[in-house]
């Protein structure tokens, strides 16, 4: 064979016909089907080999979907609604966070010193009108703003009971 013949044979062998469009679509779809089949197979294998991880992941997906679907802005926040207080009005002491029927409201001499006492000692609970029972009627003498909020503290005067006429400061949320 001569060199020219080798070149002609090489040129003839490199020239191929283009495949039909149907064949191209079928070949392109096969990797996608194989990938989906591989994912399903690996998930099923995970369920068999490590069920805790499988069901934990499934629960996580359900939780995320539940938060996305059900976490709309229609949900209502439960919080204490403070009512405006008026100097000179009569109120009743009621603990905003107390559920015990024997709960008391702490009155202090200076507004803002609510956490400045040691609650472990009970010697200060008797006498001197520092711990007032819930339901005690009081009259609002004055209020004080604090922490950027209006009427946080309230000076009250007891209008009945053994401490009648005594004054002290309480949180305004404790006035009902």
Protein described:
The protein has about 180 residues and is an alpha+beta fold. It has helices spanning about 5-15, 20-50, 50-70, and strands spanning about 90, 105, 130-135, 135-145, 150-160, 165-170. Strands 1-4-5-6 form a four-stranded antiparallel sheet, with no helix packed on it. Strands 2-3 form a two-stranded antiparallel ribbon. The mean pLDDT is about 75.
Secondary structure topology:
Layout: H1 3-14, H2 21-49, H3 51-70, E1 90-92, E2 104-106, E3 131-133, E4 137-146, E5 149-158, E6 167-171
Antiparallel strand pairs: 1-4, 2-3, 4-5, 5-6
What can be said about this structure in brief?
The model has no long low-confidence stretch (mean pLDDT 77). Helices cover 35% and strands 19% of the residues.
Rg result: 40 Å
**Averaged pLDDT:** 77
Strand order of the largest sheet: 1-4-5-6
Q: H/E element string?
A: HHHEEEEEE
Keywords:
alpha+beta, 176 residues, single chain, 3 helices, two-stranded antiparallel ribbon
